Each structure stands twice: as structure tokens, then as C-alpha cells.
């Protein structure tokens, strides 16, 4: 008998229990099932099942998100966040074309509260973590104290014996650079396609907040917001997808919002 189908289990009961991502234009889907992370190909063939190692804590995975360039995956459970990164594998599958395997790279303890949502920056170097009382913005920073080559060596022909520096050189650490306390629990959070803005909305909230980084000379990272008013509670928000080859700020960001008055609204950024 031949294998017909593999059932990987139902997704956890959460609004952020599944996400879509891509790496080198290869699409995949990831979702949380109990304490595990299930990764499927674009046509829903099983690629990998990650064991989160969270069984002893008895906390189900509550949220997940994926990047659309580097293929990184982030999941939240309890008050912790786990970040997984893909690596190329020599294994070949007859059922899918995703020749990558994911492994745990970082674990962050964000607060003493339950994490309810996570959102990746498009470049994968920033992360929004939503907890019960607000949100936190985390940056992935390269250790500036690590040694770097003092010069670039060029050679014609022969074998280059100079020191080679890989793309992964430099130890990176995640740092909480900004926090915000919300009057009510945040329900929706998403980055714009260029990463310059992110939008949030609370449960049964009529106001959508658009956050952007303040421009000043201070080294301290801070964000400020503007409001998009609605007649009734907002139920869904989504940014317009644009090509990754556009430079930041060259294309106006557009936000789609859905409201309980059964009307969808499109908000366009004013370019200066």
C-alpha cells in the first residue's frame, strides 16, 4: 500500500494560529497545533513538524508569524517567544520543493503576561510582541564589539587565502527598544509592506492606530501614532502588498479596514 495522506492535526483555537511565509520565492504555510509547529508547502504537503519543547510548561502556542523574504518563523506561548530560522538541506522530497529545515535560534522572555500576538517586520530584523497590557518592539542588533576585517583584499587568479566573512558573521542579540501600555487589549497588529508603519486596533475599538518612528537625533527609539476613526468597531485590518524591489517611501502605503457597519474602507498614506 502507498501512503495517501498525512493528517498533521488541527490548528490551535486562536486568531493568530497560522501564517504564510516565503523564502527565495518559495511559499509555505505554518500553524500551531498543540505544542508543535507544523510547516506545510504551498500545496499543503508536510515539510516539517517542530517540537517547541513547551510540553512541560503546559502552555499552548498562542500565535505565530512568518517573514516573506528570509522565511523566519516566530511563535509565542506563555510569556516567551521562540524564533526559528531556515537552513538549506541536501534532502530532496518527491512531494514538495521546499528544501529547507527550520531550527530554534533565539528565545525571548518578553513580560510576565500572556503573549497574544506577534508580527514580523518585512526584513525580519524587528519584531512586535503583543501581550495583555500592551506591546513591545524588539530589534535584532549586531554586536558592535565583535572583531571585523580591517580591509578588503582583492586578488586576480589563484586561491584567495584572505579571511572570508560569511553572511552570518557577528553574534546577534534581540533587544526590547520600546514598549507601550494600552488601555484595552490589542486585537490586531500588522506591519506595512515597507516596514515604515504598523497598525494596531483593540477589541471592539473604533479607532485604528497607525504607528511610525519619530525622527529626532536621540538614540532612544520611540514611536508616535495617528488615528483612523470608524463609526463602529473594527473587525479586520490589512496592508496592501507591494513589490519588495521598491525602495522605502517610494510607494504610498494603503490600509484596508473592515468595520461592523459592513463597509470596507481603504486608507492611503499621504506622500510628502
UniProtKB/TrEMBL annotation:
Gene3D superfamilies per record: YVTN repeat-like/Quinoprotein amine dehydrogenase (2.130.10.10)
GO biological process, alphabetically ordered: vacuolar acidification
InterPro entries: DmX-like/RAVE_component, WD40/YVTN_repeat-like_dom_sf, WD40_repeat_dom_sf, WD40_rpt
Coiled coil segments of this chain: none
GO cellular component, one term: RAVE complex
Top-level taxon of origin: Eukaryota
One Pfam family per UniProt: WD40
Protein name (record): Uncharacterized protein
Native source organism of the sequence: Rotaria magnacalcarata
Lineage: Eukaryota, Metazoa, Spiralia, Gnathifera, Rotifera
Amino acid at each position: 500500500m502507498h501512503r495517501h495522506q498525512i493528517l498533521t492535526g488541527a490548528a490551535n483555537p486562536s486568531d493568530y494560529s497560522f501564517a504564510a511565509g516565503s523564502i527565495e520565492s518559495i511559499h509555505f504555510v505554518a500553524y500551531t497545533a498543540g505544542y508543535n509547529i507544523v510547516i506545510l508547502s504551498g500545496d499543503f504537503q508536510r515539510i516539517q513538524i517542530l517540537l517547541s519543547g513547551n510540553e512541560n510548561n503546559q502552555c499552548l502556542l498562542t500565535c505565530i508569524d512568518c517573514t516573506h523574504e528570509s522565511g523566519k518563523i516566530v511563535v509565542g506561548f506563555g510569556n516567551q517567544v521562540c524564533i526559528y530560522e531556515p537552513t538549506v538541506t541536501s534532502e530532496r522530497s518527491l512531494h514538495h520543493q521546499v528544501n529547507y529545515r527550520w531550527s530554534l535560534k533565539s528565545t525571548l522572555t518578553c513580560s510576565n503576561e500572556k503573549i497574544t500576538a506577534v508580527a514580523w517586520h518585512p526584513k525580519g530584523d524587528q519584531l512586535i510582541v503583543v501581550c495583555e497590557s500592551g506591546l513591545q518592539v524588539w530589534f535584532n542588533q549586531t554586536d558592535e564589539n565583535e572583531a571585523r576585517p580591517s580591509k578588503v583584499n582583492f586578488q586576480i587568479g589563484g586561491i584567495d587565502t584572505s579571511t572570508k566573512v560569511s553572511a552570518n558573521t557577528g553574534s546577534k542579540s534581540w533587544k526590547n527598544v520600546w514598549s507601550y501600555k494600552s488601555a484595552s487589549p490589542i486585537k490586531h497588529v500588522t506591519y506595512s509592506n515597507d516596514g515604515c508603519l504598523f497598525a494596531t486596533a483593540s477589541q471592539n475599538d473604533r479607532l485604528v492606530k497607525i504607528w511610525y518612528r519619530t525622527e529626532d537625533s536621540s538614540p532612544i527609539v520611540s514611536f508616535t501614532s495617528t488615528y483612523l476613526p470608524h463609526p463602529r468597531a473594527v473587525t479586520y485590518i490589512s496592508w496592501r502588498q507591494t513589490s519588495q524591489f521598491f525602495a522605502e517611501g517610494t510607494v504610498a502605503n494603503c490600509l484596508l479596514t473592515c468595520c461592523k457597519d459592513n463597509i470596507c474602507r481603504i486608507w492611503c498614506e499621504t506622500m510628502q
